């Protein structure tokens, strides 16, 4: 992690880099790239670690992701919706409290850092909140906007979340339009995830140039192992623009526009943002047709959360008690294993004693056999001598 620190304990005059983009678009890889270019993300224990669906890590701060999730719940929204926030969401009652909470998060996490960055795709829909706070804190915002083919985003979400492609296209359109309409006066660079994998050095240089970040010198070796996380094998889908055939025209048009600016075919100028504004207006007009139904659904869903929390707490208690019972039984088994071990040792000792005694018995039996043989031999000799003695006595008697 970069440790560039300001002389004062604040974020005044700091450079804040936001990595923006739809979920499953490569924002994690770009966040690590920005970190290697010198931006501070946080300490490792403050970031969400790797998972099966993102083995190189998310590079997201836990406190920021959790903040966004709670804010979504409070305003009766979800991360996976194609419904844009209502026009007056910033003036709603809970926002003032959440604004102060976010201010504390920013000040606590990045105070004293000259260049810092954060990434959470949910920022796309909450960008106005961040922009207002950063302006108040006198921190200069820059954007790295990550683009990926909506077909590949949809395939990734289908694999991870089982979303139908139509739902993923709706989320993709909502996230991108919600963010893009806020960027007309922001320093930014558009990056294609596919181009980053195919030509990482070129794209790193491009990011540094557009954001006025010093690019590491040649001896810094920003290559090889240091960017080994940019792995083609983790890109499970690589689609062409033609593969969008059948997608909603709004999705196709926006993706083509974004790729044009990422490839420097067009500039992110007034013409570009006018086109974005027109697309956003059409999208929001259509979304109003189903806003009431979706917001009502979200409210009903959120109203069931307390009841679900009670059930989760009860399940946790049952789980805890089961764990305690298992631990108790494990202790009992351990005691029994120790008793069995002691008995096994006793059995081994007794077996050894038995073996020794058996050997002694065998030796004594052999000695007994040998003594018996000697006794028999001696008895025979004794008998023979008695007979000789008798014969001698008889001869002496005859002489007399």
Helix and strand arrangement:
Blueprint: E1 15-20, H1 27-36, H2 62-74, H3 95-110, E2 115-119, H4 123-136, E3 140-147, H5 150-161, H6 165-180, E4 187-192, H7 193-198, H8 200-210, H9 249-262, H10 270-287, H11 291-303, H12 305-399
Parallel strand pairs: 1-2, 1-3, 3-4
Tell me what you see in this structure.
This protein has 400 residues and is of the alpha/beta class. Helix content is 60%, strand content 6%. It has 12 helices and 4 strands. The chain has helices at 27-36, 62-74, 95-110, 123-136, 150-161, 165-180, 193-198, 200-210, 249-262, 270-287, 291-303, 305-399; strands at residues 15-20, 115-119, 140-147, 187-192. The chain starts with 14 loop residues before the first strand and ends with a helix. Mean pLDDT is 87; it is low at 1-7.
Which structural class is indicated by helix and strand composition?
Answer: alpha/beta
How confident is the prediction overall: mean pLDDT?
87
Helical content stands at 55-70%
The quaternary state of the protein chains shown equals: single chain
Instruction: From the alpha carbons, calculate the radius of gyration and give it in angstroms.
Output: 42 Å
- Please tally the helical runs, counting DSSP H or I stretches of 4 or more residues: 12
Strand order of the largest sheet: 2-1-3-4
DSSP strand tally: 4
* Unreliable parts: 1-7
Q: Main β-sheet, in a few words?
A: 4 strands, parallel
N to C succession of SSEs? EHHHEHEHHEHHHHHH
Instruction: Please tell me what the overall shape is.
Output: elongated
Euclidean distance between termini CA atoms:
133 Å
As a percent range, the share of strand residues is 5-15%
């Amino acid at each position: 992690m970069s440790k560039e620190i300001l002389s004062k304990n604040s974020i005044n005059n700091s450079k804040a880099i936001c990595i923006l983009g739809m979920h499953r678009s490569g924002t994690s890889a770009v966040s690590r790239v920005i970190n290697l270019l010198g931006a501070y993300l946080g300490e490792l224990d403050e970031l969400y670690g790797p998972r099966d669906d993102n083995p190189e890590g998310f590079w997201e701060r836990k406190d920021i992701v959790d903040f966004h999730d709670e804010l979504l719940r409070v305003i009766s929204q979800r991360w996976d919706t194609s419904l844009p926030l209502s026009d007056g969401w910033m003036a709603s009652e809970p926002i003032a409290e959440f604004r102060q909470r976010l201010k504390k998060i920013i000040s606590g996490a990045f105070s004293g850092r000259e260049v810092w960055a954060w990434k959470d795709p949910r920022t796309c829909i909450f960008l106005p909140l961040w922009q207002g706070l950063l302006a108040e804190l006198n921190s200069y915002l820059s954007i790295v906007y990550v683009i990926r083919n909506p077909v590949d985003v949809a395939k990734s979400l289908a694999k991870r979340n089982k979303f139908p492609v139509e739902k993923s296209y709706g989320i993709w359109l909502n996230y991108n339009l919600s963010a893009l309409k806020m960027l007309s006066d922001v320093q930014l660079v558009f990056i294609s995830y596919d181009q980053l994998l195919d030509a990482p050095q070129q794209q790193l240089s491009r990011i540094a140039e557009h954001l006025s970040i010093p690019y590491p010198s040649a001896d810094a070796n920003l290559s090889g192992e240091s960017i080994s996380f940019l792995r083609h094998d983790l890109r499970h889908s690589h689609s062409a623009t033609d593969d969008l055939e059948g997608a909603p025209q709004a999705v196709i048009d926006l993706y083509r526009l974004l790729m044009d600016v990422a490839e420097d075919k067009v500039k992110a100028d007034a013409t570009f943002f006018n086109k974005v504004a027109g697309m956003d207006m059409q999208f929001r007009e259509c979304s109003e047709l189903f806003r009431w139904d979706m917001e009502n659904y979200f409210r009903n869903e959120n109203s069931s959360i307390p009841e679900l929390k009670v059930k989760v707490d009860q399940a946790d208690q049952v789980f805890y008690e089961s764990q305690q019972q298992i631990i108790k039984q494990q202790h009992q088994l351990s005691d029994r294993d120790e008793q069995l071990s002691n008995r096994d040792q006793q059995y081994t000792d007794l077996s050894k004693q038995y073996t020794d005694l058996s050997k002694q018995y065998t030796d004594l039996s052999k000695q007994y056999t040998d003594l018996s043989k000697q006794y028999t031999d001696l008895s025979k000799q004794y008998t023979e001598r008695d007979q000789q003695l008798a014969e001698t006595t008889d001869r002496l008697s005859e002489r007399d």
